[in-house]
């Protein structure tokens, strides 16, 4: 009997290829009669090079391009990091499988074999987003945290080849997938640094009508990780999801229950007004939304959100500044102006 061949689309980056290959190895180990083929998709980076994209393994434009190719039938499935997903998921696609989560924490990579507490004053550390920069800068004000743009490969070149950076903060799972464990100096406890939503989680995207794909991927699907991802995604979508915000979140599911912690970083505190919600795993999405609403009604958290939107200072009434046209930003400003309560107690 001929083995079934399943094609997986993959962006043309070393990280994307490594993560896809790891997923395919797990799948073929669980189903030896299944033959998998990785189909590398040329990145559309040239047409988005002028955009100010955040430092992620893949930019939003690249992920959207991969999704377009999947919907067009160029390949059957695609492996993507959950933290790179553009939410909500494009119509016609679904999660064919969610892979068991790798450690979701942030790691510090350096050539100097030193933890952040041991780095000399003024050391330049690259970070992947506003969340990392805000939390790190509040804890280590003696260091310079530089927000990087581009891909993981360019960040590693800045650290290891050009030596423009003294260190780099990146997801621990990414360092593991790239085989960089030898330069990982420390991994941050989530009580100190909350990770990004979906960090450490790989998902397999498929077309909604392709029900057979989910059956083929069932051996590597992890329901616990799916619950955690649902809680974190619901939390993120309650905020201005099209903005890059200093928001950290981590959900943990165990024995049918889920606990989710979220915080908004600000210049005043590493994890301003951290809140926690707990409940049944079946209520994961609702818990994520509820947690976000707690923070949206917290004065300290709103300061962090406004700092991210107005890095040069929030315009005052005396400033002749046009109001922002983005409805999500307008909501944040209205909440800040009409804040009726401060902290909510954690449930």
Count of all domains: 3
User: Residue share in helices?
Assistant: 25-40%
Number of strands: 13
Going by CATH, the architecture of the largest domain would be 3-Layer(aba) Sandwich
The SSE string, one letter per element, is EHEHHEEEEHEHEHEEHHEEEHHH
Runs with pLDDT <50, length 5+? Answer: 46-57, 317-329, 335-347
Query: The biggest beta sheet, please?
Result: 5 strands, mixed
Cα-atom radius of gyration: 21 Å
Mean pLDDT: 82
Shape label: globular
Which structural class is indicated by helix and strand composition? alpha/beta
Strand content: 15-25%
Which sequence of strands runs across the widest sheet? 2-1-3-10-4
Annotation field: number of helices: 11
N-to-C CA distance: 56 Å
- CATH topology name of the largest domain, in short, is D-Maltodextrin-Binding Protein, domain 2
CATH class of the largest domain: Alpha Beta
CATH homology superfamily of the largest domain: Periplasmic binding protein-like II
